[in-house]
Write a sequence for this structure.
């Protein structure tokens, strides 16, 4: 009995570790979303960036599902459609509007509230019960990034911050819905079917929001749009959804605290946005909080 329990414990730890690794890969891909959005907006409108990238990703999803001969799990269709509304439309449009008024580096730090909000939704509807230590780590980590955002903006929150918080709410709830689905179906299928079910909205909206001048987009804007379509909207969710299903929604979501600093690094490199020593100190503090939260107990 002891040997069997030890084997089960090792298997659970390995599964959680793999979930965290996949979640981290998704975070790295998602970390480029705000900088890529800001570059894409130099040519494209927020509405086309939102609907166009969803339309492109839905075509890729349809091709993959046809090749693998997958059938729609009709019983999960409502939840898949809800995840699509939140992740395919909610987060992209709110973040695109925000990127018109705030730097990508600022937005990346504000979105540091994502793990805490995701944990709240995971507790409310995901059937997970984080420990007190876990909640303390989540609150402290979120407080750090919000304090950083306010300090970076003269101790006030702008309209762009409001839209970033709305984006965080949409993404967090979408992550929990997707994570629950990924417990009994492949994570890559979750995002594929979510894209397919929302395609009747995204494809016509992309056509409607297209303007002829978009055809003269720069190489940087075009590449950024393609990154948003096939990276942020497609491949990133492959890793992220599988990670949530394997490692637990609340636990894996804490890794997303690091996304803020992936965004900062990309913003500094691509957009030449200034990243000072204070940012590095905040990054180290958040990494320490994530490491501590990793050890906290989360039951289902």
């Amino acid at each position: 009995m002891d040997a069997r329990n030890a084997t089960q414990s090792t298997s659970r730890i390995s599964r959680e570790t793999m979930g965290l690794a996949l979640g981290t890969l998704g975070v790295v891909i998602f970390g480029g979303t705000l900088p890529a959005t800001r570059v894409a907006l130099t040519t494209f409108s927020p509405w086309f960036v939102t609907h166009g990238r969803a339309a492109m990703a839905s075509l890729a999803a349809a091709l993959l599902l046809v090749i693998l001969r997958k059938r729609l799990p009709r019983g999960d269709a409502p939840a898949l459609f809800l995840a699509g509304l939140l992740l395919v439309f909610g987060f992209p449009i709110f973040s695109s509007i925000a990127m018109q008024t705030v730097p990508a580096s600022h937005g990346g730090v504000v979105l540091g509230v994502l793990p805490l909000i995701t944990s709240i939704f995971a507790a409310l509807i995901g059937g997970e019960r984080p420990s007190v230590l876990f909640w303390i780590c989540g609150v402290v980590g979120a407080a750090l990034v919000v304090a950083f955002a306010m300090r970076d903006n003269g101790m006030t929150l702008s309209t762009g911050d409001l839209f970033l918080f709305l984006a965080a709410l949409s993404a967090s709830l979408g992550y929990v819905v997707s994570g629950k689905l990924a417990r009994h179906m492949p994570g890559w299928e979750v995002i594929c079917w979510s894209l397919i079910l929302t395609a009747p909205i995204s494809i016509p909206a992309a056509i409607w929001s297209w303007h002829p001048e978009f055809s003269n987009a720069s190489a940087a804007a075009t590449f950024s749009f393609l990154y948003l379509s096939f990276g942020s909207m497609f491949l990133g969710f492959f890793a992220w959804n599988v990670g949530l299903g394997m490692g637990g929604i609340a636990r894996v979501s804490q890794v997303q605290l690091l996304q803020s600093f992936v965004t900062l690094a990309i913003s500094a490199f691509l957009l030449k946005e200034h990243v000072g020593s204070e940012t590095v100190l905040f990054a180290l503090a958040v990494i320490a909080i994530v490491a501590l939260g990793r050890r906290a107990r989360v039951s289902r």
User: Anything to note?
Assistant: The first helix runs from residue 2 to 30. Residues 166 and 242 are 25 Å apart (CA to CA).
